[in-house]
Design goal:
Elements lengths: L15 E4 L5 E9 L5 E8 L2 H17 L11 H13 L5 H19 L9 H13 L4 H20 L7 H4 L17 H11 L5 H10 L3 H5 L6 E2 L4 E4 L1 E3 L4 E2 L19 E2 L4 E3 L7 E4 L2 H21 L20 H15 L8 H12 L4 H8 L6 H8 L4 H16 L2 H13 L1
Antiparallel strand pairs: 1-2, 2-3, 4-5, 5-10, 6-9, 7-8
Amino acid sequence: MTEEKKRTRRANGESAIYLGKDGRWHARVPMGYKDDGSPYRRHLTRPTRKELVDEVRRLEKQRAEGAARQPGKPWTVAKWLEHWVENIAKPVVSENTYDGYEVAVRVHLVPGIGRHRIDRLEPEHLESLYRRMQSAGSKAGTAHQAHRTARTALGEAVRRGHAAKNAAALAKPPRMEEDENEVEPYSVDEVQSLLLEVNKRRNSARWMLALALGLRQGETLGLRWSDVDLDNEYLKLRRNRLRPKYQHGCGEASPCGRKAGYCPDRVQVRRETKNTKSRAGRRAVPLPGPLVVMLRLHREAQARERAAAGNLWTESEYVFTKPLGGPLSPNTDYHDWKRLLEDAGVRDGRLHDARHTAGTVLMLLGVPDRVIDQIMGWEPGGAARMRARYLHVTDPMLKEAARKIERAIWGAPENLAVDKDQDNEA
C-alpha cells in the first residue's frame, strides 16, 4: 500500500484526508457535536488532493471562528424567524418590542424572504424586499423596522452557527427622508392655549404632566397615588402602563363575529403595567406649584366620582382613571389628546410631541443638562444623544442669540441710536 493510501491514527479534532477506492480524495472534518452529543464530521470529496486540502482549511477556519454551519437540516428564513420571535425574543423583550418584531416577521419578512435558506440569504434579497415594500405603499420607517428586526434575528442565527454571515447587517435600508420624523415642539403660546382648554376638562393634570415635565404616556397612565407626594411636591416614576391586548372569550370559532378587542366576553392577556426598563426611568420628578394644586383638585374630583359611582366604581389606585374607575386605556388617552388639540385651536401633533416640548422648554429656561436628564429619565451614557433628539432650537432662541451677538459686538441699542445721530449731524 502506498504512503498516500495509508490511513494513520490522528489526534482528536484533526481532519482525516485519504484517497478513496473511487479514485477521488476524501476528507472527514470534525465540526463539533450533534444535539445528542455524538461527534459531527463533514464529509468532503474532491478530484485532487490540493483542492481538497484547500476546502478542508476553509472549513477549519470557519470552525475556529465559530462561523461554520451546524449539523441538521438547514433553516429556512421563515422557520428561523418564527422560531426566533416566539422562543428566543418573546421571553426576554418587553411586550411592545415583541409586538413590533412579530408584525415585522409575520407581515413583511416571512412573505418577502421566508423561502430562502438562512445560510444562503444575501443582502440583495433584503434590499429587494425593502424596495417592494415601498412600492406597495409602506413608509421608509416601516422598512427600517423590518430591517432592524431582520438584523437582530439573523445576528442570533450567526451566533448559534446557523449562518456564516448576517445578511441584514450588510444590507442597506432605504433612506429616511429628513423631514419624515421632524418634530416641531409647541411654543409657549400654544402650551398656554392648551392650558386654558385643559382646565375645562376631566383629568386636566394628566396633560400638564406631559407638557410641563415631559412624562411619557405609559409613565403618566401608570402613576398611582402612592407614587405622588404632594406635601413634598414630587412624584416617583416606577412603572409604565401597557397597551391592552385581548383574546376572544366566546370560543375558538369567534361566534361574536367581532375583533378580539370588541368581543363581549374578551379576555385580557397582557398585564396592566411593567416596571420601567432602565434605572434612569425609575426617578423622582419635582412638581411645580401649579401642578401640585391641579393634582390636589384632581384627587378631590376623583373622590367625588367614586362616591357618585358607588358599587359601579372599579378600585385601582391609579391617579388617572376612567369615569367609573379602573385604568385609562392608552388608545382612549390618545384620542382625548387629539380632541384637546382641536378644541384648543392648536395644530395637530403626536402625543409624544408634548415630551419634545417639555425638554425644549427646560433647555430654554437654562436648566442644567444633568437636571434635564433626571427629569426626562435619560441614561447617562446616552443622554447626549437623547438631548440632540429631543431638545430643539426654536426661532425665539435663535432671535435671542442674535440679540446677544448684537449687544456683544455693536453694543446696547441706545448706543446704536447715538451713533446714528452723530452720523446724521456730520
